[in-house]
Design goal:
heterodimer, A: about 25% helix, B: alpha+beta, two-stranded antiparallel sheet, about 45% helix, about 20% strand, disordered C terminus, Ribonuclease P/MRP protein subunit POP5 (chain B), tRNA processing (chain B)
């Protein structure tokens, strides 16, 4: 049986898995009414403290950045190195207190591309 | 085949203070390592490493410690060992350091390594000793005490055993179980040592001396 040779490909397709350097998370901090709202440095300190509690000094040394923060809605965009995504997300999930008051981190969106956080179909208002 | 795989980390306790040897106990070393893991890797690291974490063997005279942990979390443990700075025992605190000698999958491989390592160390110590008097004197360093220990216990066995990791002739051949002889209770072996392991240690001593 003769095997016909495939023609030489005119294009090349490369698939990269988990190749992004950074991961972006859009999170919202839920606080009870009347609690003091943190500013951007306080939010960063809260995130790093959460990492230190769950993952120790190694976790606290993870490069996490707060790219944007709205104090009114308590929404923030965090950037973390790709290998540290699981550590950051788990630390945010288990962070339960801010200044001795109950709080919760809700992760709204996550993506290896920052632009992907611009469109959120969950918050789409359909008329 | 599904079974729990462990990694055994062989370490040596280095300390400048000779009194540190008194507080080398399995509980003190275990607590110190757990604290270091908790500081370095947090609650997650503590939970991971301490599932199957024990101090399997400890020799206060040579400062040899054998730690056990799960295979998947051996890197967490190994990365936290250099962060052990103090050993606390009996209300006293001594600065110390843990040096990793070997990581093995079984106690037997660690034992084989320890035999060769102790042989080399003994040769080095013998070269450093200048005369017989210094050799038999109790030295301040743990290594000197090791040489003293090996020699005092090994003189009896040297005549009987033929070298290598052989069973001592005064025990029944073919049996691996059963406690060691009374003379070994003088050695500061960890209380978690199983009888099988005590036999391994007894086998080690004559093989070192007959190098």
């Amino acid at each position: 049986m003769e095997r016909t040779e495939l023609p030489a490909a005119a294009y090349e397709r490369r698939v990269l898995v988990s190749a992004a350097q950074h991961y972006y998370l859009r999170v919202r901090l839920e606080l009870p009414d009347g609690a003091a709202r943190p500013g951007a440095p306080q939010l960063k300190q809260l995130v790093v403290a959460a990492l230190r509690e769950l993952h120790g000094e190694v976790g606290a040394a993870l490069p996490v950045d707060v790219l944007a923060y709205e104090e009114k809605t308590l929404c923030a965009i965090l950037r973390v190195i790709s290998s540290g995504l699981v550590k950051l997300w788990s630390a945010l999930t288990l962070q339960g207190f801010y200044q001795n008051r109950r709080c919760a981190f809700r992760v709204l969106q996550t993506s290896p591309f920052l632009l992907a956080l611009a469109g959120n179909s969950r918050e789409l208002a359909l008329d | 085949m599904v079974r729990f795989k462990n990694r055994y980390v062989l370490c040596e306790v280095l300390s400048e203070d000779p009194r540190c040897r008194q507080c080398i106990e399995d509980r003190a070393v275990g607590l110190a390592v757990r604290d270091a893991i908790a500081r370095a890797h947090g609650d997650y690291g503590l939970g991971c490493c301490c599932v199957s974490f024990t101090v399997k063997y400890l020799n206060a005279y040579t400062g040899t410690v054998l730690l056990r942990c799960r295979k998947d979390f051996q890197r967490l443990l190994s990365s936290a060992l250099p962060l052990v700075r103090h050993l606390e025992g009996r209300g006293q605190r001594f600065p110390c350091a843990l040096r990793t000698l070997h990581v093995g999958g079984t106690i037997r491989t660690c034992q084989k390594f320890l035999i060769q390592y102790n042989r080399r160390q003994l040769l080095l110590l013998l070269q450093n000793c200048t005369n017989e008097g210094e050799f038999l004197q109790p030295c301040s360093s743990a290594r000197g005490a090791a040489a003293q220990l090996l020699l005092s216990f090994g003189r009896g066995e040297a005549q009987c055993a033929a070298g290598g990791a052989e069973l001592l002739p005064h025990r029944r051949a073919g049996t691996e179980r059963g406690g060691g002889g009374g003379r070994w209770h003088r050695d500061r072996l960890s209380s978690t040592c199983s009888p099988v392991f005590r036999i391994c240690i007894i086998k080690m001593i004559p093989s070192i001396v007959l190098c």
